[in-house]
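Quick note —
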Amino acid sequence: MNKPLMYSGIHAVESLLRHRPEGVLELFVLDTRAKRGDARLETLIIAARDQGIAVQYSRRESLDKLAGPQNQGVVARARPRSAGDEQALAAHLDGLDHPPLLLILEGVTDPHNLGACLRSADAAGVDAVVVPRRHAAGAATHMPPACDSRTTRPPPLTAVQH
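Predicted structure written out below.
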């Protein structure tokens, strides 16, 4: 089994709790921010507790050690989602009740750009993301099955029957 990863920031943790709550092992929140009654943070805490996820109140130094200084006061420890293969992608698309919307990325090398693409895909309702294997871990954080575009090809959209 893959080692758990740390995901930090309001948007990343919110997305994990919405799309993959079963993968979240623990939520760490900045104690001083929680005491202030931060509404966005409180929403994440409630969502985590509703899913049975342990919430730990931590000091800034602890959060920085877990995930670096740009953590926005919230860090989730979660199991990484493995990238899917062509069969997982086809099964996912076959199970949709609407025409699929795919995002196929190639040549996106900056992790921040990849993150921006994934957040935009999430907001736009993309059903799956196809990325090269070298970036699949980032896509697998919360999006539906991703396909490695170097070794497999997604089925043509016209071949997907709905």
